[in-house]
Amino acid sequence: MMRIEERVPLAPCTTLGVGGSARFFADCTSEAEIGDALHDARTHKIPVAILGGGSNTLIPDVGFDGLVIKVSIPGMTFADEGEGSMATVGAGVSWDAFVREASERTLWGIENLAGIPGTVGGAVVQNIGAYGSELAETFVACDTVLLANGASKTIDRSLAALAYRTSLFKHRRDLVITRATFRLAKRGTPNLAYPGLKEAQERGDPLATPGEIAEAVRRIRSEKFPHGEGTAGSFFKNPILPLAQVEALKKRFPELPTSALGEGRAKIALAWILDHVLNLRGYARGPVRMFERQPLALVTSPRARAEDVEALAHDIAKRVRETIGIDIEREVETLRAK
Ligand SMILES: Cc1cc2nc3c(=O)[nH]c(=O)nc-3n(C[C@H](O)[C@H](O)[C@H](O)COP(=O)(O)OP(=O)(O)OC[C@H]3O[C@@H](n4cnc5c(N)ncnc54)[C@H](O)[C@@H]3O)c2cc1C
Q: What CA–CA distances, in Å, run from 117 to 46, 111, 225?
């Protein structure tokens, strides 16, 4: 039974572990509970913010003066479909629990995305990606609830506008995802092109099934991210730039890793710039620092505040702008009203 709590600290609901409290907080395990919570918020004219696993969210120190709805809808079903299986998953299910279940059923398509923290709902919003794979490759549709009136609406892949770390749901902030459907395949070919996996293959690690690949990805990831400290993974996005600008950067920095995206644009590796151009690996400002083993990730110590995270993030963005003339965008979102 859903209860609306008051003055709930939000830092423990996120992986960065900073920030203030929610004036009201509702942990919702069904569409009906989300509908009730939204109805209450409308009646009392309170702003609403949505939280999944909090692994891509920065909570401001002032907290949120409204209702935070945590989406905890459970459930996974797999419907056989000849060559594949349609998986329908509650938005509150842990993404990696979904990857594990799919692997156990030897279903292909999401194994390279193993070990990414957060919920299935958050994964869709962000169109998560890693190790040469993206959620968009298997996404079919999702069910949503409209903030304004609690009505249900299904958004299919043509409307969902999934692109590099973004989707319709980043702009249409009036939609709460309640469930998502993915098409997984019974047969697949291992995608081992990415560094890390390629090395594992050369070492002779077993990488023939979705489960083996997922385990290898989890192993590699566990060496790349901090343990026992706050982080939200990559804090900034890799910039996507017109080819002419990328060529000019390549002239200055011939070793800069880039990947062509078509339509006259390419993605550049911001971690390489932070590391090799700006020397920011391990760079600290008070209780927050750029992680030594992964300079795109920002790490917080237990006494850090959101303002410390903001200060370091602004500092980094300013250095990148001044040195290479690019405005970088954050991947991590600040909690705000829908
Ligand atoms: C150690 C670490 C490693 C990471 N590695 C990767 C990686 O390799 N690749 C990658 O892409 N990401 C990575 N991330 C980032 C993060 O895990 C993903 O973005 C994840 O999908 C966020 O899910 P969440 O449930 O935690 O979202 P939250 O942080 O709770 O929310 C993120 C945004 O989505 C919205 N939202 C959440 N749930 C819903 C919903 N049901 N309906 C509508 N809106 C919703 C929120 O309002 C917010 O705007 C990493 C994070 C960490 C901490």
A: 29, 14, 11
Q: Determine the structural domain holding residue 307 and report its residue range.
A: 226-334
234 in catalytic set: yes
Active-site option among 167, 221, 234, 289: 234
Q: 71, 91, 112 — which closes off a domain? A: 71
233 lines ligand 1 (CB under 6 A): yes
Task: Give the Cα separation of 183 and 206 in Å (integer).
Answer: 25
Q: Are 228 and 17 in contact (CB under 8 A)?
A: no
Q: What is the pLDDT of residues 42-101, one digit of tens each?
A: 999 999 999 999 999 999 999 999 999 999 999 999 999 999 999 999 999 999 999 999
**Domain boundary, last residue among 223, 257, 283:** 223
Residue 278, domain CATH? 3.90.78.10
Global model pTM greater than 0.90: yes
Angle (CA) 329 335 338, round 5°: 100
